[in-house]
Design goal:
alpha+beta, HSP40/DNAj peptide-binding domain, 4 domains, Helix Hairpins, Chaperone, DNAj Protein, Chain A, 3-stranded mixed beta sheet, 4-stranded mixed beta sheet, 15 strands
Protein backbone atom coordinates (compact mmCIF):
# COMPACT_ATOMS: atom_id res chain seq x y z
CA UNK A 1 0.00 0.00 0.00
CA UNK A 2 1.39 3.43 -1.02
CA UNK A 3 2.11 5.68 1.95
CA UNK A 4 0.52 9.12 1.95
CA UNK A 5 2.58 12.28 1.78
CA UNK A 6 3.44 13.58 5.27
CA UNK A 7 2.61 17.19 4.38
CA UNK A 8 -0.73 16.07 2.99
CA UNK A 9 -1.48 14.10 6.18
CA UNK A 10 -0.93 17.18 8.36
CA UNK A 11 -2.56 19.51 5.84
CA UNK A 12 0.37 21.94 5.69
CA UNK A 13 2.59 23.57 3.09
CA UNK A 14 6.04 22.09 2.37
CA UNK A 15 7.64 25.31 3.64
CA UNK A 16 5.80 25.17 7.00
CA UNK A 17 7.91 26.01 10.04
CA UNK A 18 8.00 23.99 13.24
CA UNK A 19 5.33 26.11 14.97
CA UNK A 20 2.94 25.57 12.05
CA UNK A 21 3.61 21.83 12.11
CA UNK A 22 2.88 21.70 15.83
CA UNK A 23 -0.37 23.65 15.46
CA UNK A 24 -1.50 21.33 12.67
CA UNK A 25 -0.62 18.26 14.73
CA UNK A 26 -2.47 19.61 17.77
CA UNK A 27 -5.60 20.24 15.72
CA UNK A 28 -5.54 16.74 14.23
CA UNK A 29 -4.77 15.08 17.58
CA UNK A 30 -7.70 16.83 19.22
CA UNK A 31 -9.96 15.71 16.36
CA UNK A 32 -8.82 12.15 15.64
CA UNK A 33 -7.45 10.87 18.95
CA UNK A 34 -8.79 7.30 19.45
CA UNK A 35 -10.11 7.97 22.93
CA UNK A 36 -12.23 10.73 21.46
CA UNK A 37 -13.45 8.36 18.76
CA UNK A 38 -14.00 5.06 20.63
CA UNK A 39 -16.44 3.74 18.02
CA UNK A 40 -14.04 4.31 15.10
CA UNK A 41 -12.07 1.09 14.55
CA UNK A 42 -9.68 2.94 12.23
CA UNK A 43 -8.84 5.68 14.75
CA UNK A 44 -5.60 4.09 16.00
CA UNK A 45 -4.21 3.63 12.48
CA UNK A 46 -5.16 7.20 11.55
CA UNK A 47 -3.47 8.57 14.68
CA UNK A 48 -0.33 6.50 14.04
CA UNK A 49 -0.18 8.02 10.55
CA UNK A 50 -0.49 11.55 12.00
CA UNK A 51 2.15 10.80 14.65
CA UNK A 52 4.58 9.43 12.08
CA UNK A 53 4.20 12.53 9.90
CA UNK A 54 4.81 14.77 12.92
CA UNK A 55 7.84 12.73 14.07
CA UNK A 56 9.52 13.01 10.66
CA UNK A 57 8.75 16.66 9.87
CA UNK A 58 9.85 17.95 13.28
CA UNK A 59 13.25 16.23 13.03
CA UNK A 60 15.66 18.29 10.91
CA UNK A 61 17.64 15.36 9.45
CA UNK A 62 14.63 13.14 8.78
CA UNK A 63 12.77 16.00 7.14
CA UNK A 64 15.79 16.78 4.92
CA UNK A 65 15.94 13.18 3.72
CA UNK A 66 12.17 13.06 3.17
CA UNK A 67 12.13 16.33 1.21
CA UNK A 68 14.97 15.08 -1.00
CA UNK A 69 13.94 11.46 -1.59
CA UNK A 70 10.42 11.03 -0.25
CA UNK A 71 9.63 7.87 1.74
CA UNK A 72 12.60 6.15 0.08
CA UNK A 73 14.91 8.48 1.98
CA UNK A 74 13.82 6.89 5.28
CA UNK A 75 14.08 3.26 4.23
CA UNK A 76 17.07 2.67 6.50
CA UNK A 77 15.14 3.82 9.56
CA UNK A 78 13.35 1.41 11.86
CA UNK A 79 9.98 2.32 13.35
CA UNK A 80 11.71 3.08 16.64
CA UNK A 81 14.15 5.36 14.79
CA UNK A 82 11.26 7.30 13.28
CA UNK A 83 9.70 8.01 16.69
CA UNK A 84 12.91 8.50 18.64
CA UNK A 85 13.16 11.92 20.26
CA UNK A 86 9.41 12.67 20.23
CA UNK A 87 7.69 12.73 23.65
CA UNK A 88 4.06 12.17 22.76
CA UNK A 89 3.12 11.95 26.45
CA UNK A 90 4.29 15.52 27.04
CA UNK A 91 2.50 16.66 23.88
CA UNK A 92 -0.78 15.16 25.04
CA UNK A 93 -0.42 16.84 28.42
CA UNK A 94 0.38 20.14 26.75
CA UNK A 95 -2.70 19.78 24.56
CA UNK A 96 -4.92 19.04 27.56
CA UNK A 97 -5.31 15.38 26.59
CA UNK A 98 -3.83 13.98 29.74
CA UNK A 99 -6.83 11.97 30.89
CA UNK A 100 -7.28 10.13 27.63
CA UNK A 101 -3.93 10.32 25.91
CA UNK A 102 -1.93 7.66 27.64
CA UNK A 103 -4.06 4.72 26.61
CA UNK A 104 -3.18 5.51 23.03
CA UNK A 105 0.40 6.31 23.99
CA UNK A 106 0.64 2.81 25.46
CA UNK A 107 -0.79 1.35 22.27
CA UNK A 108 1.84 3.18 20.23
CA UNK A 109 4.61 1.88 22.45
CA UNK A 110 3.16 -1.60 22.21
CA UNK A 111 3.17 -1.47 18.42
CA UNK A 112 6.69 -0.04 18.26
CA UNK A 113 8.51 -1.99 20.96
CA UNK A 114 6.20 -4.92 21.64
CA UNK A 115 5.71 -3.92 25.27
CA UNK A 116 3.51 -1.64 27.32
CA UNK A 117 4.92 1.36 29.10
CA UNK A 118 5.24 0.11 32.67
CA UNK A 119 4.48 3.35 34.50
CA UNK A 120 1.20 4.00 32.73
CA UNK A 121 -0.84 0.94 33.52
CA UNK A 122 -4.43 1.94 32.75
CA UNK A 123 -6.14 -0.64 34.90
CA UNK A 124 -9.82 -0.33 35.67
CA UNK A 125 -10.49 0.51 39.30
CA UNK A 126 -11.34 -2.17 41.83
CA UNK A 127 -14.98 -3.12 42.35
CA UNK A 128 -16.63 -2.61 45.74
CA UNK A 129 -19.23 -4.72 47.56
CA UNK A 130 -21.83 -3.50 50.04
CA UNK A 131 -24.21 -5.84 51.92
CA UNK A 132 -27.56 -4.12 52.50
CA UNK A 133 -30.14 -5.52 54.90
CA UNK A 134 -33.72 -5.23 53.65
CA UNK A 135 -37.05 -6.16 55.20
CA UNK A 136 -39.79 -8.33 53.75
CA UNK A 137 -41.88 -5.18 53.43
CA UNK A 138 -39.11 -3.53 51.34
CA UNK A 139 -39.29 -6.44 48.92
CA UNK A 140 -43.09 -6.50 48.91
CA UNK A 141 -43.55 -2.81 48.12
CA UNK A 142 -40.15 -1.79 46.68
CA UNK A 143 -38.12 0.84 48.50
CA UNK A 144 -35.55 3.58 48.15
CA UNK A 145 -32.53 3.21 50.42
CA UNK A 146 -29.61 5.50 51.07
CA UNK A 147 -26.26 3.89 51.80
CA UNK A 148 -22.89 5.36 52.68
CA UNK A 149 -19.75 3.76 51.31
CA UNK A 150 -16.11 4.36 52.12
CA UNK A 151 -13.86 4.56 49.08
CA UNK A 152 -11.03 6.48 47.49
CA UNK A 153 -11.23 8.90 44.62
CA UNK A 154 -8.71 10.69 42.44
CA UNK A 155 -7.54 13.97 43.93
CA UNK A 156 -9.23 16.87 42.15
CA UNK A 157 -6.23 19.16 42.52
CA UNK A 158 -3.40 17.00 41.19
CA UNK A 159 -5.56 14.60 39.08
CA UNK A 160 -3.79 11.64 40.64
CA UNK A 161 -0.18 12.74 40.04
CA UNK A 162 0.44 13.49 43.72
CA UNK A 163 2.16 16.76 42.81
CA UNK A 164 1.32 20.39 43.47
CA UNK A 165 0.36 22.50 40.42
CA UNK A 166 4.02 23.44 39.87
CA UNK A 167 5.57 20.41 41.48
CA UNK A 168 5.72 18.02 38.52
CA UNK A 169 8.58 17.97 36.05
CA UNK A 170 9.48 15.67 33.18
CA UNK A 171 12.02 13.03 34.16
CA UNK A 172 15.40 14.10 32.81
CA UNK A 173 16.63 10.53 32.53
CA UNK A 174 13.93 9.01 30.32
CA UNK A 175 12.67 12.33 28.87
CA UNK A 176 9.14 11.58 30.00
CA UNK A 177 8.81 8.19 28.31
CA UNK A 178 9.03 6.15 31.50
CA UNK A 179 11.42 3.77 29.76
CA UNK A 180 15.11 3.36 29.18
CA UNK A 181 16.05 1.77 25.87
CA UNK A 182 19.40 -0.01 25.56
CA UNK A 183 20.55 -0.85 22.03
CA UNK A 184 23.39 -3.01 20.83
CA UNK A 185 24.27 -3.35 17.15
CA UNK A 186 25.74 -6.52 15.73
CA UNK A 187 26.34 -6.26 12.02
CA UNK A 188 23.01 -5.42 10.44
CA UNK A 189 21.05 -6.46 13.53
CA UNK A 190 19.92 -4.26 16.39
CA UNK A 191 19.24 -5.79 19.80
CA UNK A 192 16.98 -3.61 21.89
CA UNK A 193 16.22 -3.95 25.62
CA UNK A 194 13.53 -1.81 27.25
CA UNK A 195 13.44 -1.27 31.01
CA UNK A 196 11.30 0.85 33.26
CA UNK A 197 13.01 4.06 34.25
CA UNK A 198 14.26 3.61 37.81
CA UNK A 199 14.28 7.33 38.52
CA UNK A 200 10.60 8.06 37.83
CA UNK A 201 9.43 4.43 38.24
CA UNK A 202 7.90 4.46 34.78
CA UNK A 203 5.68 7.51 35.24
CA UNK A 204 7.80 9.81 33.07
CA UNK A 205 7.54 12.54 35.70
CA UNK A 206 9.28 13.55 38.91
CA UNK A 207 7.31 15.01 41.83
CA UNK A 208 9.26 17.92 43.30
CA UNK A 209 6.50 19.17 45.59
CA UNK A 210 3.63 17.11 47.01
CA UNK A 211 0.02 18.07 46.45
CA UNK A 212 -1.32 19.95 49.46
CA UNK A 213 -4.68 18.19 49.33
CA UNK A 214 -3.73 14.50 49.06
CA UNK A 215 -0.20 14.86 50.51
CA UNK A 216 1.34 13.25 47.46
CA UNK A 217 -0.84 10.13 47.41
CA UNK A 218 -2.90 11.12 44.38
CA UNK A 219 -6.07 9.80 46.02
CA UNK A 220 -8.41 10.97 48.75
CA UNK A 221 -10.51 8.84 51.11
CA UNK A 222 -14.15 9.83 51.24
CA UNK A 223 -17.56 8.73 52.46
CA UNK A 224 -20.20 8.93 49.76
CA UNK A 225 -23.95 8.61 50.04
CA UNK A 226 -25.65 6.68 47.24
CA UNK A 227 -29.34 6.13 46.57
CA UNK A 228 -30.42 2.53 45.96
CA UNK A 229 -33.75 1.42 44.50
CA UNK A 230 -34.96 -1.98 45.80
CA UNK A 231 -37.08 -3.67 43.09
CA UNK A 232 -40.28 -5.45 44.12
CA UNK A 233 -40.09 -9.21 44.53
CA UNK A 234 -36.31 -9.65 44.43
CA UNK A 235 -34.81 -12.64 46.20
CA UNK A 236 -32.28 -12.86 48.99
CA UNK A 237 -28.69 -12.19 47.79
CA UNK A 238 -29.97 -10.27 44.77
CA UNK A 239 -27.16 -8.05 43.41
CA UNK A 240 -27.63 -4.46 42.26
CA UNK A 241 -24.77 -3.14 40.09
CA UNK A 242 -24.01 0.59 40.15
CA UNK A 243 -21.53 1.38 37.42
CA UNK A 244 -18.64 3.73 38.12
CA UNK A 245 -19.05 3.90 41.89
CA UNK A 246 -16.06 1.70 42.75
CA UNK A 247 -12.43 2.64 43.25
CA UNK A 248 -10.82 5.00 40.73
CA UNK A 249 -8.86 3.55 37.81
CA UNK A 250 -5.16 4.08 37.32
CA UNK A 251 -3.92 6.90 35.10
CA UNK A 252 -7.33 7.96 33.86
CA UNK A 253 -8.79 4.47 33.35
CA UNK A 254 -12.44 3.81 34.15
CA UNK A 255 -13.43 3.42 37.81
CA UNK A 256 -14.68 0.12 39.18
CA UNK A 257 -18.29 -0.68 39.95
CA UNK A 258 -20.27 -0.99 43.18
CA UNK A 259 -22.18 -4.22 43.81
CA UNK A 260 -24.92 -3.98 46.43
CA UNK A 261 -25.95 -7.42 47.75
CA UNK A 262 -29.39 -7.55 49.36
CA UNK A 263 -29.66 -9.51 52.60
CA UNK A 264 -33.19 -10.33 53.81
CA UNK A 265 -33.67 -9.69 57.52
CA UNK A 266 -35.55 -12.24 59.62
CA UNK A 267 -39.19 -11.24 60.01
CA UNK A 268 -41.01 -11.59 63.35
CA UNK A 269 -44.23 -12.91 61.75
CA UNK A 270 -43.47 -14.33 58.32
CA UNK A 271 -41.14 -16.83 56.67
CA UNK A 272 -40.39 -16.51 52.99
CA UNK A 273 -40.21 -19.51 50.67
CA UNK A 274 -39.91 -18.36 47.06
CA UNK A 275 -42.73 -15.95 46.33
CA UNK A 276 -44.90 -17.44 49.10
CA UNK A 277 -44.94 -16.43 52.75
CA UNK A 278 -45.83 -18.57 55.77
CA UNK A 279 -47.16 -17.57 59.16
CA UNK A 280 -48.53 -19.34 62.23
CA UNK A 281 -51.82 -18.43 63.91
CA UNK A 282 -52.91 -19.62 67.33
CA UNK A 283 -56.59 -20.47 67.86
CA UNK A 284 -58.49 -21.68 70.89
CA UNK A 285 -59.83 -25.18 71.48
CA UNK A 286 -63.36 -23.89 70.93
CA UNK A 287 -62.45 -22.18 67.64
CA UNK A 288 -60.83 -25.36 66.44
CA UNK A 289 -63.88 -27.43 67.34
CA UNK A 290 -66.62 -25.04 66.23
CA UNK A 291 -64.88 -23.16 63.43
CA UNK A 292 -64.64 -19.39 63.25
CA UNK A 293 -63.85 -16.41 61.03
CA UNK A 294 -60.78 -14.51 62.21
CA UNK A 295 -58.49 -11.74 61.02
CA UNK A 296 -54.80 -12.59 60.68
CA UNK A 297 -51.93 -10.19 59.90
CA UNK A 298 -50.78 -10.10 56.27
CA UNK A 299 -48.07 -8.18 54.42
CA UNK A 300 -50.65 -5.83 52.95
CA UNK A 301 -52.95 -5.56 55.96
CA UNK A 302 -55.33 -7.86 57.92
CA UNK A 303 -56.72 -10.87 56.04
CA UNK A 304 -60.04 -12.57 56.98
CA UNK A 305 -59.72 -16.35 57.21
CA UNK A 306 -62.41 -19.01 57.72
CA UNK A 307 -61.35 -21.64 60.27
CA UNK A 308 -63.21 -24.87 59.40
CA UNK A 309 -64.90 -26.95 62.12
CA UNK A 310 -62.70 -29.61 63.67
CA UNK A 311 -59.45 -28.17 62.35
CA UNK A 312 -56.33 -29.84 63.73
CA UNK A 313 -52.97 -28.39 64.80
CA UNK A 314 -50.51 -27.94 61.87
CA UNK A 315 -53.31 -27.70 59.33
CA UNK A 316 -52.20 -25.24 56.61
CA UNK A 317 -54.69 -22.86 55.03
CA UNK A 318 -53.87 -21.20 51.69
CA UNK A 319 -54.81 -17.59 50.85
CA UNK A 320 -54.06 -16.92 47.12
CA UNK A 321 -52.42 -13.67 46.01
CA UNK A 322 -51.29 -12.51 49.44
CA UNK A 323 -47.62 -13.40 49.02
CA UNK A 324 -44.74 -11.48 47.44
CA UNK A 325 -44.80 -9.94 43.97
CA UNK A 326 -43.20 -12.15 41.33
CA UNK A 327 -39.98 -10.43 40.25
CA UNK A 328 -40.32 -9.08 36.70
CA UNK A 329 -43.57 -11.04 36.31
CA UNK A 330 -47.27 -10.53 36.84
CA UNK A 331 -49.06 -11.65 39.98
CA UNK A 332 -48.08 -12.57 43.51
CA UNK A 333 -47.35 -15.65 45.53
CA UNK A 334 -49.67 -17.00 48.22
CA UNK A 335 -50.01 -16.67 51.99
CA UNK A 336 -49.99 -19.96 53.93
CA UNK A 337 -51.39 -20.00 57.47
CA UNK A 338 -50.32 -22.81 59.77
CA UNK A 339 -52.94 -23.39 62.50
CA UNK A 340 -51.85 -24.06 66.07
CA UNK A 341 -54.52 -25.13 68.57
CA UNK A 342 -53.65 -23.79 72.02
CA UNK A 343 -54.55 -25.84 75.10
CA UNK A 344 -56.28 -23.56 77.67
CA UNK A 345 -54.57 -22.90 81.00
CA UNK A 346 -55.58 -21.39 84.35
CA UNK A 347 -59.15 -22.62 84.01
CA UNK A 348 -61.83 -21.49 86.45
CA UNK A 349 -63.91 -24.02 88.42
CA UNK A 350 -66.87 -23.47 86.11
CA UNK A 351 -64.70 -23.98 82.99
CA UNK A 352 -63.35 -27.21 84.43
CA UNK A 353 -66.89 -28.46 85.15
CA UNK A 354 -67.93 -27.70 81.60
CA UNK A 355 -64.90 -29.49 80.20
CA UNK A 356 -65.61 -32.53 82.39
CA UNK A 357 -69.19 -32.53 81.15
CA UNK A 358 -67.88 -32.22 77.60
CA UNK A 359 -65.45 -35.08 78.17
CA UNK A 360 -68.27 -37.24 79.62
CA UNK A 361 -70.39 -36.63 76.55
CA UNK A 362 -67.46 -37.47 74.28
CA UNK A 363 -66.87 -40.77 76.10
CA UNK A 364 -70.56 -41.71 75.92
CA UNK A 365 -70.53 -41.00 72.21
CA UNK A 366 -67.42 -43.15 71.78
CA UNK A 367 -68.99 -46.03 73.75
CA UNK A 368 -72.15 -45.88 71.66
CA UNK A 369 -70.10 -45.85 68.49
CA UNK A 370 -68.27 -48.98 69.58
CA UNK A 371 -71.48 -50.85 70.49
CA UNK A 372 -73.11 -50.10 67.15
CA UNK A 373 -70.04 -51.00 65.09
CA UNK A 374 -70.74 -53.71 62.43
CA UNK A 375 -67.42 -55.25 63.41
CA UNK A 376 -68.77 -55.94 66.92
CA UNK A 377 -71.95 -57.64 65.55
CA UNK A 378 -69.84 -59.89 63.35
CA UNK A 379 -67.67 -60.79 66.30
CA UNK A 380 -70.73 -61.68 68.42
CA UNK A 381 -72.17 -63.98 65.75
CA UNK A 382 -68.86 -65.74 65.36
CA UNK A 383 -68.72 -66.33 69.11
CA UNK A 384 -72.22 -67.87 69.26
CA UNK A 385 -71.38 -70.16 66.41
Amino acid sequence: MTKRDYYEILGIDRNADEATIKRAYRSLAMKYHPDRNPEDKHAIERMKEINEAYAVLTDREKRRLYDAYGHAGLEGYTTADIYRGVDFGSLFREFGLRDFGFSFGDSILDSIFGTRKPGWDRSKGADLRYDLEVSLEDIAFGANKQIEIQRTRTCNLCLGSGASPRGLIVCDRCKGTGQIVFERRSGYSIFRQINMCSKCHGTGNIVTENCSVCQGKGIIHENKEIQIRIPRGVDNNYVIKISGEGEPGRNGAAPGDLYVVLKLKEHPNFERIGDDIYTTVEISFAQAALGDRIDVPGLYGPVSVDIPEGVQTDTVLQIPGQGLPRFNKEGKGDLYIRVKVVTPQDLSQREKELLREFDKLQKEKQTKRVKTSPFNDATSRATRT
